[in-house]
Amino acid sequence: MIRHIVTFTLLADTDALRHTQAAWIAAQLESLVPLIPEIVALSVYPDVQQTPANADVVLVSDFADHAALDRYQSHPDHVRVSAGIRELVASRAAIDFTL
């Protein structure tokens, strides 16, 4: 099992906009679950502390293996959703590891 974690720091300059964008990102990513069979599990969470040094949103997702993660990342629906999210993001970090 591969866990794929991605953190996003948003460009939003107000808490209200950051909250709205984080909710939209969560909805977009969660919409992929029924569309991409490689997704074993997927959750998206906002930073509840809103600590300035923290990322604003985290994606935690699981895949059977590296090949499944690769298929997810190149899936047209993931590419479409990622393009929309990218416009809102100042920085992104990711890590993949074996469970």
UniProtKB/TrEMBL annotation:
<dbReference type="InterPro" id="IPR013097">
    <property type="entry name" value="Dabb"/>
</dbReference>
<dbReference type="InterPro" id="IPR011008">
    <property type="entry name" value="Dimeric_a/b-barrel"/>
</dbReference>
<protein>
    <submittedName>
        <fullName>Dabb family protein</fullName>
    </submittedName>
</protein>
<feature type="domain" description="Stress-response A/B barrel">
    <location>
        <begin position="2"/>
        <end position="97"/>
    </location>
</feature>
<dbReference type="Pfam" id="PF07876">
    <property type="entry name" value="Dabb"/>
</dbReference>
